[in-house]
Write a structure and sequence with these properties.
Blueprint (H helix, E strand, L loop, with lengths): L4 E3 L11 E3 L20 H10 L3 E3 L3 E6 L5 E2 L14 E5 L1 H5 L38 E3 L1 H7 L4 E5 L9 H14 L4 E5 L3 H13 L2 E7 L4 H9 L3 E5 L3 H15 L2 E2 L7 H16 L7 E5 L4 H15 L9 E7 L4 H7 L26 H10 L3 E5 L1 H15 L5 H15 L9 E5 L7 H5 L9 H4 L8
Parallel strand pairs: 8-16, 9-10, 9-12, 10-11, 13-14, 13-16, 14-15
Antiparallel strand pairs: 1-2, 1-3, 4-5, 4-6, 7-8
Bound molecules: pyridoxal-5'-phosphate and zinc ion.
Zinc ion binds next to loops.
Length: about 475
């Protein structure tokens, strides 16, 4: 692959903050285009000339590597798993990137996850973007006071396009799928990933074929329809949906973007780790609580911290990575407690946190490895606990979280009670989605009551 270079800052008028080009295309005597081969108006050429002095090496993916057997593959091809069946991870020339990409470049970077484009697999210019990422990290003192924590923060991922952190991963996956020539994408999903795929596929002009359990939240079903996706509801779990996609994809010509079955969703989700580090001025927190279904975000953040250390942007400290699951579906917690390297299929999975209803994750061994290496822990909370805690976050902070976010609050309470977390630990709770997408779950707490005749008596509108 040709070396790719990134010109920062003032040449950004058209391409989201960046112009890119191979060395030849920056030979301005003859070159008048950047790598996307678009002719540039003369004004832009001038700007590029100005910028050439600060030209930066671009962090394009250098290869894909197997997370289990280390087999390598070229990065510029549509691929799902390694031949051995394990997930693939994206590698970059971090040594090269380190010499040119500096933390202070972020001061003028775009306010989305594409601010980290040098460590993402595509140019910002090629991104199918709906402005995902760069979500707020909010100090939650009122919530903390209720649960006995003095330094607790909420990373509010409910602010993403389609109201969940799934936007980050699917943005990256759809960007790469389009770039590498896919036309029809298919996904088995617990709900939010389907909504995100449908939105990004719509933005990219690609087909989305979606398989979800028939009892997914209504919001997920409706949003997929609104985005024009082909939606099938299945009488079963996400694992059944996954089987159907795997069986049909060859005949249908679908490219499968299931969790961890393509390498780029991790790359989008890893930007949560970059953001937390940047938002704390490059000092990572003491603990991160993450609601774990397939585990992509946790795996991604763990990768992000390793990359950040290699870039020289953070030191060796790592947050304790804490996996939070529901007692009705807790394969990772059980494996952690049993000192197992991988999880076992959880039979009869049930929880209102639909994103956590994943009975067996392909990347379970990566989640467990990250939790253990970080000296973290895996815990579970009941549906009642996560809804109570979700409503506590709502009342105390004005943030209405997904039950998955509530689960993390409930987990903090438990871990403070048993001493695993200390009240002064800087603790980050991931609210991975918005409560507005889970109205059925919260409705159980707020039965509708019609005003009685008594209430109406003497009222301003219907005086008697
Ligand atoms: C709101 C929410 N939180 C957490 C998860 C779990 O995500 P992951 O697969 O990264 O573990 C999901 C997955 O659907 C989700 O929708
Ligand atoms: Zn392999």
């Amino acid at each position: 692959m040709a070396d790719t270079y990134l010109a920062m800052a003032s040449c950004s008028s058209r391409l989201n903050g960046y112009r890119t080009g191979t060395p030849e295309s920056f030979a301005f005597d003859k070159g008048d285009y950047c790598t996307n081969r678009q002719n540039l108006p003369p004004k832009c050429v001038n700007l590029l000339k100005i910028c050439i002095g600060t030209m930066e090496r671009m962090g394009q993916a250098s290869k894909l590597g197997c997370s289990k057997c280390n087999q390598e593959y070229p990065s510029e091809q549509l691929r799902n798993l390694c031949d051995c069946g394990a997930p693939l991870l994206v590698h970059y020339d971090l040594h090269g990137i380190r010499s040119t990409w500096k933390r202070n470049h972020l001061k003028s970077a775009v306010n989305s996850m594409w601010r980290y484009a040098p460590v993402l697999p595509a140019d910002a210019a090629d991104a199918v973007t709906l402005s995902e990422g760069w979500t707020p990290l909010i100090r939650a003192d009122a919530l903390g006071a209720e649960i006995g924590a003095r330094n607790v923060w909420i990373k509010d991922e409910g602010r993403n396009p389609t109201d969940s952190f799934k936007a980050r991963g699917l943005c990256c996956a759809v960007t790469m799928a389009r770039k590498l020539g896919a036309k029809k994408l298919a996904i088995p999903s617990a709900g939010n990933a389907a909504g995100a795929l449908a939105a990004y596929a719509a933005a990219a002009g690609l087909e989305a074929h979606i398989f979800m359990p028939q009892d997914v939240p209504e919001a997920n079903f409706l949003e997929c329809g609104a985005f024009g996706a082909d939606v099938r509801l299945i009488d079963g779990l996400i694992s059944d949906c996954g089987r159907i996609v795997a069986e049909r994809k060859a005949a249908e010509g679908w490219f499968e973007v299931s969790t961890l079955k393509e390498p780029y969703r991790i790359e989008g989700k890893k930007t949560m780790g970059y953001e937390v580090a940047e938002q704390f001025d490059w000092e990572v927190p003491d603990a991160i609580l993450y609601p774990c279904g397939g585990g992509v975000g946790l795996i991604g953040m763990w990768k992000a911290f390793a990359e950040l250390e290699e870039l020289g942007w953070i030191g060796t400290k790592r947050p304790k990575m804490i996996s939070v699951q529901a007692t009705g579906c807790a394969p990772i917690t059980r494996a952690f407690e049993n000192d197992a390297e991988a999880s076992e299929f959880w039979k009869g999975a049930h929880t209102v946190a639909s994103g956590l209803r994943v009975p067996k994750a392909l990347g379970d061994f990566l989640v467990l490895r990250a939790v253990r290496e970080s000296k973290g822990i895996a815990v579970s909370v009941s549906d009642e606990e996560m809804l109570d805690a979700g409503l506590l976050m709502s009342e105390k902070q004005g943030i209405f979280p997904a039950p998955e976010g509530g689960a993390c609050v409930a987990a903090v309470k438990k871990l403070l009670a048993n001493g695993f977390l200390k009240p002064d630990d800087r603790t980050v709770i991931f609210n991975t989605g918005s409560g507005y997408k889970y109205l059925e779950a919260y409705r159980t707490r707020f039965p509708r009551q019609i005003a009685s005749e008594e209430d109406k008596l003497g009222g301003l509108i219907t005086p008697r």
